[in-house]
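Sample pair:
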Amino acid sequence: MARVPPGIGVPDPLRMLFEWVDINGFVHTDEDGELWGSLSDDPFNGPGSYLLLRGNTTDEVGDRLAGWLAPVRDGVPVLWPFCRTGGDGSMAALWRAPDGRDLIVHLASGSGSLLMCVLGEDAVDFLRLLAIGYKEVCWNDDWSEPPVPEPGGEVANLPYRHWVETSFGVDIPATGLEIIPNPAEWGDEDTTDIWCRAVNETGE
């Protein structure tokens, strides 16, 4: 959370997620000494294994997004990627929308996933989406069906699912489309999704 740039507000549920990861010892160190978090003690197997939580520095945000979407508006940062959503390089990010809302949005890699939409009505919806059990949430084509576990594996990350249910008093649906019924993709011309429309207007 220390890397969140000034101007972007972090919803309380997202702060609680990072705290839960830390309390449960799910923080890891890579070979470069960088810290990142996961939703379990085995970040490379099982549901959500590609959901790696790592806040980017302001410079990293600029380097990563330069050329297709400006992460700064009127000199103020408006976009902060904080989570990898798939092995293709797709990410989730906090975005300060022009109307002042702080939304969690999906940044498609473009070389794989094309998902480019707001990830739920609020931050709790984002946590619920992660709890369904998809190994990678960047593939919205999979959202019409429940996730299929690997042989001998669980459908869902049960400790994480229980935490979401009890902390926020919500249920976890069977499919992603129950949370995001009309996921927009990069270049959709008829979408009403505020994030996809912004990308279409400013991206290359």
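The chain has a mean pLDDT of 81.
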